[in-house]
Amino acid sequence: MKIFQVLLRRTYMPNGHIHRGKQKLIKEPTIKDIQKLKNQFAIEEENMFYLRHPYLTAEQSYGHAHALGRQEERMKRLLAVKKDFKENVTIESRLGHLRHKESWD
């Protein structure tokens, strides 16, 4: 039985666990992997360029939120959330949709 295991053993596999240890199986990088990495670096460099040189200057971007009215919208939402009392809720208002067919009345 042992001779059978020795003869049919896959010789390209490392001893032990294939992802850990000193005899782990390491995948060699291909041309496709290197090209993908170069493309990712190029995209990252382009993004960093746009972050270093924005479309608007600091003076142009100042006050754009005020012109859009975002501060007023935010204050309205904040005041709506911070009400002292909530609106009155009744069982009839919650379960009114169940009364559409009352033939026994």
TrEMBL record:
GO terms for molecular function: structural constituent of ribosome. Pfam families: MRP-63. GO terms for cellular component: mitochondrial ribosome. InterPro entries: Ribosomal_mL63. GO terms for biological process: mitochondrial translation. This is Ribosomal protein 63, mitochondrial. It comes from Henosepilachna vigintioctopunctata. The lineage of its organism: Eukaryota, Metazoa, Ecdysozoa, Arthropoda, Hexapoda.
